[in-house]
Specification:
Cro/C1-type_HTH; DNA-binding; 326 residues; Helix-turn-helix domain-containing protein; transmembrane; 16 helices
């Protein structure tokens, strides 16, 4: 097979047009057309670039005796999955779908207390003929319903466990060309990821501002309760922005790392995730319990910045203890 045929097959295998390949090699589309028509031959620098883009050796491109099928039938280590471009793409799609369900569940759980605070605010001002007992009853029912719906979204994520296991739970290696494709996808996605991550973090930071301002300049309990709803809503918006975009970026990274062996960074991340799964629900429970017990919402919000600093300290302590463990 001559070089022209190899370029055509490798390009089509990755689903690229001549324009897309030309852009990646920094040449015109006409140059790629001439290469594929065997009317010209790429210079040495372009051959090296093509080998990197297609994730093949220069020998494979230059020697006619190397056939394209050798790429697909290369020897694999026993016990290691061979991930094709299609499988990697499906993994990312399943990961995004799974995170969309998780995002809905998290948002519902965060917002589950909003009706309770709203009804309590109405009861404080005797609006809607709302009494304290009725407000508490309706609020608790709303919490139970929203949390139940949220948990149902968490349960639905089980349908994707088998589809993502090949990359997340088992050692694997990528087929030729897959690494370059996903490296390019992650590179193109990074600006959007950084922007949405910044917006989400901004939401977390400013979520306490309305409540803080009301606590300083107003002492009306109903306004404070409504500002708690605003706080929870802004946090939910931030989570809804961050979770999907983070999952997509992490999915690209999971494909690219070819995790035959779990790295120390991955283990550190998993330990932090386990701690977060216990820590933040506990902090929410403490916050709500303290706030309802004292009804000092203008003061209890301080638990959040303190809790964030404490979480960072706990992660650092956990890593320190882990390093000291033989």
């Amino acid at each position: 097979m001559i070089l022209a045929d190899k370029i055509i097959r490798l390009r089509k295998k990755l689903g690229w047009s001549q324009e897309e390949l030309a852009e990646k090699v920094n040449v015109s589309r006409q140059s790629v057309s001439k290469w594929e028509g065997a009317n010209s031959i790429p210079d040495l620098n372009k051959i090296i670039m093509l080998s990197q883009i297609f994730d093949v050796s220069t020998d494979f491109l230059l020697k006619d005796e190397h056939e394209e099928f050798e790429v697909a039938t290369e020897a694999k280590e026993p016990g290691i999955n061979h991930i094709t471009l299609e499988q990697a793409t499906e993994y990312v799609e399943h990961k995004i779908a799974m995170t969309n369900l998780v995002s809905k569940g998290v948002v519902l759980c965060v917002c589950s207390a909003m009706p309770l605070f709203f009804f309590m605010a109405m009861a404080e001002t005797n609006r809607l003929n709302m009494t304290g007992d009725i407000a508490a009853a309706l609020g608790i029912v709303s919490v139970l319903i929203l949390v139940s719906v949220g948990v149902s979204f968490f349960i639905k994520t089980n349908q994707y466990q088998d589809e993502i296991a090949a990359i997340e739970d088992e050692p694997f290696e990528l087929a030729y060309g897959v690494h370059s494709v996903f490296h390019e996808k992650r590179k193109q996605f990074r600006p959007a990821y950084n922007l949405r991550l910044s917006v989400g973090i901004f939401c977390f930071i400013v979520s306490f501002v309305p409540l803080l301002c009301v606590s300083i300049f107003s002492f009306e309990q109903d306004i404070v309760l409504l500002m708690i709803d605003v706080l929870l809503f802004i946090i939910a918006v931030g989570l809804f922005i961050i979770l999907p975009v983070s999952a997509k970026y992490d999915a690209y990274s999971n494909v690219l790392k070819e995790a035959v062996k779990e790295t120390e960074t991955t283990r550190r991340t998993k330990r932090a995730e386990k701690l977060a799964g216990f820590y933040w629900p506990l902090l929410i429970a403490i916050y709500l319990g303290w706030s309802f017990w004292t009804m000092a919402w203008g003061i209890t919000w301080i638990i959040w910045p303190v809790g964030a600093v404490l979480f960072a300290a706990l992660v650092g302590l956990m890593e320190l203890l882990h390093k000291d463990t033989p």
